[in-house]
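Lab notebook: predicted structure, single chain.

Context: the supervisor wants predicted structures on file for every construct in the current expression panel, including those that have not yet been purified. This is the next one on the list. No modifications to the sequence; it matches the entry in the shared construct table.
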Amino acid sequence: MANIKSAQKRIKVIAKKTARNRMIKSQLKTAIKRFEEAVEAGNLEEAKVKLTFVEKKLSQAAAKGTVHKSSASRKISRLAIRLNKAI
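Prediction complete. Output recorded below exactly as produced.
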């Protein structure tokens, strides 16, 4: 444990941010997995709904800094391409 008060605070803040980032990334992975399952099952209407949800979550994660903006944009693009190929 750190001896300096500001360092102790930083440890607490980093722990909170790490927990939040881990939660957000887990939600993203789950949402993407559900989208991919819908596409593979051929359930295109459900896949479209899931894609909009994934886009929203990725945009929020990028806004919070959990995921880089370019990375989020690239993932959204690739998922949209995957849906369009399935159609």
